[in-house]
Specification:
Blueprint: H1 13-26, E1 31-35, E2 38-42, E3 53-56, H2 65-78, E4 85-87, H3 93-101, E5 104-116, H4 134-145, H5 152-160, E6 166-173, E7 177-187, E8 190-198, H6 207-221, E9 226-232, H7 236-245, E10 248-258
Parallel strand pairs: 3-4, 8-9
Antiparallel strand pairs: 1-2, 2-3, 4-10, 5-9, 5-10, 6-7, 7-8
C-alpha cells in the first residue's frame, strides 16, 4: 500500500517540535552533532534509522544544502553507515527539492499519532505491571521480532541510555516464552509507546490491545496527559489497533537515501 506523504492534514508545527524532541529522548542516538539546526544522529551498534539519520529542525535553515549533505555523508561513512535523511514537517522544502533533484529515493513513510489520555475509554482488560529487567525485555523483543540475538547488546545499551522513566511490559507463557512486548517512556506529561511486538500465533486475539492499554494506563496513573507513537504507514493491523484506542494522526515523516543505496 502506497500512502501519499502530502495527504495528511497541515500539521501543528509547535506540536511537531515537541513530539520530535521527546522522541529523540525516548530513542536516543549514541552520537548527536549539529550543523546549524540539522541534527546528525549516529549509533554505531544499532541499525535503527531513527538513531542513524540526518534531521532538519528549522524550515528556514536552507544555507549550503548540498555542501552540508556531503559533510554529513562523510560522518556516516566514518561509522560504516550509508546516510539517510529523515523528512518531517520541520524540514525546509528546499532541502527536499535538492534531494529529489539529485536523485535521492524516498522510502519508509510513518505516522506519528497522539492521544489525549483523558479521553481514552475504560476497557475491561487484564492489567500488567512493568518490569525493569532490560535483559529479559530485550530477549523477548528479539524473539518476537525474529531478530538476530547478536543485536542484543546494542538494543540493551540503547534502552539503558533512555533518561526519562520507562516501563517495560511483557506477556509471557511459562512453556511457550514471550507472547507480546511493549515499552512506554514517560517524559513529564507525555508518554511514548515504542517497541510493540506480538508473536505471530497471538495476533488478532486482542493481545496487543491488552498490553498497549496496560502501558498507557500505567503512564496515565503516573501523571501523563498525552501519549504518542510512531507506526509505519502501511502497517494496517497496528493502525487499526491504535485507532481503536483513540490515537489520531499528528504528522508524518519519511526517509530519503541516495538511489542505489540499500
Amino acid at each position: 500500500m502506497v500512502v501519499d506523504f502530502t495527504s495528511s492534514a497541515t500539521p501543528n508545527l509547535p506540536q511537531v517540535r515537541r513530539l520530535e524532541a521527546v522522541s529523540f529522548r525516548a530513542w536516543p542516538a549514541a552520537s548527536v552533532q549539529y550543523d546549524g539546526s540539522w541534527q546528525i544522529r549516529l549509533t554505531g551498534g544499532h541499525p535503527s534509522k531513527r538513531v542513524n539519520c540526518v534531521v532538519a529542525l528549522d524550515r528556514s535553515d536552507t544555507r549550503d544544502i548540498r555542501l552540508r549533505l556531503e559533510k554529513a555523508a562523510r560522518k556516516f561513512e566514518s561509522y560504516g553507515r550509508t546516510m539517510v535523511f529523515r523528512e518531517t514537517p520541520l524540514a525546509p522544502p528546499q532541502v527536499v527539492d535538492v534531494l529529489r533533484e539529485d536523485g535521492w529515493v524516498r522510502f519508509d513513510e510513518s505516522l506519528v499519532m497522539s492521544l489525549d489520555l483523558s479521553l481514552m475509554p475504560d476497557h475491561d482488560v487484564m492489567d500488567h505491571l512493568p518490569t525493569q529487567d532490560i535483559g529479559r525485555f530485550v530477549d523477548a523483543s528479539l524473539t518476537l521480532r525474529n531478530e538476530d540475538d547478536a543485536s542484543k547488546p546494542a538494543l540493551a545499551e540503547l534502552i539503558s541510555n533512555i533518561k526519562p522513566p520507562l516501563g517495560l511490559f511483557l506477556i509471557e507463557q511459562p512453556d511457550n516464552g514471550p507472547v507480546a512486548a511493549a515499552m512506554c517512556v514517560q517524559d513529564n506529561d507525555l508518554a511514548g509507546l515504542l517497541q510493540l511486538a506480538v508473536g505471530n500465533a497471538y495476533r488478532g486475539q486482542g493481545t496487543g490491545f491488552e498490553l498497549t492499554y496496560a502501558a498507557l494506563r500505567w503512564a496515565r496513573i503516573r501523571g501523563a496527559k498525552s501519549a504518542w507513537l510512531q507506526v509505519q504507514a502501511d502497517n494496517e493491523a497496528a493502525l487499526a489497533l491504535y485507532r481503536k484506542l483513540g490515537f489520531q494522526e499528528a504528522y508524518r515523516y519519511c526517509y530519503w537515501r541516495q538511489d542505489g543505496e540499500a
